[in-house]
User: Fold these one by one.
Assistant:
Number 1:
Amino acid sequence: MNEKFDAIVVGAGPAGNSAAYTLAKAGMKVLQLERGETPGSKNVQGAILYSDALERIIPDFRDDAPLERH
């Protein structure tokens, strides 16, 4: 494999996904690596997602996001 990338993001948790998305949106060719079976599977967090801020980064994220509401 001789592909070249502008950036390599390690991890597909919240920070890695945000970084990869932001870089790709800016036109960069991005490779994202995750050691888990699914994106974010190694992620453990009890954080709150602030929807107003997230909406500015990923408009209409609620339509596709697998969110659990309490």
Note: The two ends are 45 Å apart (CA to CA).
Number 2:
Amino acid sequence: MAVTIRDILNDKGAEVATLGSTAVVGEVAALLRSKGIGAIVVVDDADDVVGLVSERDVVHALAEQGDQVLLTPVVEVMSRDTPTCTGAARVDDVAALMTRGRHRHVPVVEDDRLVGIVSVGDVVRSRMDALTETADQLRAYVSRGY
């Protein structure tokens, strides 16, 4: 059976950091640091996903604009064309999406509601766990002398 994004969320938890579209970059930086995370989902007043802002977005904005960017609205530095997935999506499919688009984080949406986020690290960890389980099963099979 294929591993799904829902399996990852069940293991790691579905907590996802969000900020409203009126937040400023300084708030983003503070939340990224306090939560020890790499990205925040930006939502509108109806809690619909409007974008994603990452550590990389903040660093690029700081390099280009200096520290005055900390007072800039997040909507000016966030990525707007953020792909999403559902909990039923296969991990392999989301890994391919991340690789093709060079996305490090993908919000998880169910019935138009944000329910989580997965990172490239979550996807890699899940795939490694599956490979380890397969290797263990093969070792057990071989050691039984079949």
Note: The mean pLDDT is 92.
Number 3:
Amino acid sequence: MIFAIAVSVFLLFLCRVLQVWLKYRFHPIPSHPWPIRKDLNAKVVARSLKNGTLPKIFRPEMFPFSSFSKGYILTDFKMIKEAFAKKELSNRDSSEKVKADVKESHHRIGLDKIALEILGPEDRLIKNGPRYFIGIGDGPYDGLHKQFRMMWFDASKRLTGKNKMKEIIEQSSASVNEILLREGSDKNGTDPKEVFMNGTMNVVTGFAFGTFLEFDNPDFKKLAEYIITIFEYFSLSLLKRTIAGKIPLFITQNSFYQKLWNKFAKFKKRDDAVKNFHRFIHKQVVEHRASLDTENPRDYLDMLLIAAESEPRLGYDVVAATVLGIYLGASDTLANQLSWLCVTLADRPEIQEKMYEEIIASIENENEIKKENCPFTRSVLLESQRLNPVVDSLMHRACSDVVVDGVLIEKDSSFQASLTAVMHDPKNFDEPDRFIPDRFFKNGEFVNDIRVVTFSIGLRNCIGKQIAVDQYFVFAANIIRDFRLSRSSKSMEIAPHLMIRMPKEGAVRFEKRI
């Protein structure tokens, strides 16, 4: 009897395996190699584009995941544009399994206790309670997400109207150049990535909290340390979350599983950084509440606190995670874009000089560097972003069956866009592997191209795009105005990383212009 049951179970298992194999063996969407590391999959994309074998949509073949799953990579611009404009395809994975994983992590770290200790039981964020998702970049494309975006645009408009944002960007840029002069002017140069990280983080600090902190300020140093540490483990955190969405719920909720993961990934350093970051945010909440004017919000945190009074989904963890998401999204990616720009220009002194002449002419005519007066410079900056894409899109999740460009994307499918493929596709750009500084400079004018999708595209595009574009221009223009760039290291290899495409060695000399 027992033998018969065992044989029956085994046969059922074999039938299920065969069923799955047949389903994916004859799946209408092809599979294609997709290494889990960003530096490796960028090479696969480049090679496949050259030989014409890259599908416009495919099931990724990568370890530990295989093509036996409802996960897709989109590579065609037209298809991505259509897909990312659809509400049904603009969600993040906020399943109960993922929330359970986040909840277990919160309890293990003690984030609820930290919030209660600092904010007190009567604070609205405590009463609203935890929601167990990671803020503005997460969750469904619903009313709350739209509210996040409206608050962002409102805060941007208020700060821009008061010239506060411009002032913060200029101050941060000046601080960056001071450090580059001090650390990068000798023959050995310096890798500017960390300096750019500090500069970009300070701009976020100004937007989120309405203040500028000097780089040597003890509070800023601590904040920068927390964010850099969290980002260091961010890829592994996303991997853990992805796995949580694919395994049974009871495993995710098992304390042994959580302890095993954290021991394996050595998350203690990250956990300490997350706790300290939450303490920092909650203290900012207390300070902001003491002088909060509901009729005249000063910054993004003010707007979140005001909205929380009538929006119960804005709990203490959502506010902290939203601010953290802004730091992660706006600092490291832009710092890498600036690093790629410096490495690229360091080998091209003639382009630096042409940019310098244009920048100086703008100063002489307007007493400041204006984007509108620097079309060639803007072309160079956009071309650097196109040639050296830093990240691909975040993962999307389908909430229903949707047909895109004749292809069915099934409900509960996960998918992302390869922005690298779009910006290196010869159908979109001639000689895509070449750096052509005047690619977007036509008849003396800057001509934008929507296929340069640095900040993604569609309903879930980068919410801070405009601030990032302004910041990128100001930082770059001031560097070219103040320095001549040359490279100390000759390597142009891409550093190994799960998510970010960044230069492995980026030592650049910043020689002060006289």
Note: The chain has one domain: 29-512.
Number 4:
Amino acid sequence: MVAVPHLGLPSRPRADIVPESLGSAEFRADHGVRYAYVAGSMYKAVASEDMVLRMGRAGLLSYFGAGGLRADRVVAAVERFQRELGDGPYGVNLLASMENPAKEAEQVEVFLRHGVRRVEAASFIRPTESLVRYRLTGLRRAPDGSVHVPHKVMAKVSRPEVIDTFLAPAPRQLVDCLLADGRITAEEAELARQVPMADDLCAEADSGGHTDQRSLVILLPDTLRQRDRAARDFAPAGRVRVGVAGGLGVPDAVAGAFVMGADFVLTGSINQCTVECGTSERVKDMLQQAAVQDMAIVPAGDMLETGTRAQVLRRGLFYPARANKLYELYRRHDSLDDLDPRDADQLQRRYFRRSFEEVWAETRAYYERTNPASLEKAERDPKHKMLLVFKAYFVQSIRLAMSGSAEQQVDYQVNCGPAMGALNSLLRDTPYEDWRSRHVDHLAELLMGGAARVLSERLHSMTTVERRGQ
């Protein structure tokens, strides 16, 4: 444990309000952690092995950013976690892949083969066959009559219709399919009726990356009520814990989440600006300078065709404007040949810095290997081909940011929410202003210790006023 810097926070917490007392005791016991605090996953190992190990050694839970990685990289990471953490807490992200279900199935196969006990399910609009398989594998009746569930699922959610699916048992059609194929046992299929799809729901508010831009103070209470309503028809849903993410960059915000009933809190954006984060030093330097107003909403590159939105860093970058322009061009045109010549020239010279033919050659090779069906569609449908070419810019922008390319810094894609700016403001003129002094577990101590202090001070203030009024 590290000492929490004062940073202008109340200095005399009540003895009964300590970081270990915040949130759900069941969450802490179930995951074997000190605090009801999670460092969430971030794509392509931005939430890195070092981040997961640092948190695990501190007795805290974090999820490895497995999205977008090859299976062998994920296997190597899991083996390292098991070797260095033993039974310590860790989890791995499972990113929904509507376009390529085989990728999702491959990840689940890795998790089951290598004994991954915790998964953070992200971007799911409903449980899929692969996620259901992970959840149900290993279900058995315990001696006390309860159902032993070895595979824990934390689902990131923000929409009521998605929340409902994770409070319910696995869809029977998927269970029957898995049973018929021999991928689960008859006992697992039967016990599935008694188990909700998630142990934990993380209600995502104004988060970095994919976002519905929900308000935390509306989303969290509404999700808690939805959980309680679901329990009337399916009692096990009442045991599903509800936490919150998005906008949690300072102790006051964390304290507010717990006051509203959060069982746990999850941070994301702020952890990018730490020593352990897997992104480049150039990105960390940029994030360290960010203020709360330095974010923008753009199309999410992996779901460009649906108009799904993402929140990114705007300060000093052309990426937000270019991402929005690509989306508008996709909406207005039916093929690359249909583009205005001036737009086509600008995209090739300034966005891609190479010809459409060169971009397509690389894209084609990738889809031949990973998703032949999408490639076949592109060969038939010029608009789909244009979509895949445009998506290559979004992939390129992630690679540039992670590599720290100086030549194309303006094209960096850095998923980030305003919590980053709030934390920077808090840490200004302290030893933690420089990201090189920030460690992911230290931020956990700062936020949780600070939240306990804030709650102590507010409670003291309210009780003092009450006594004066008597």
Note: The chain is about 45% helix and 10% strand.
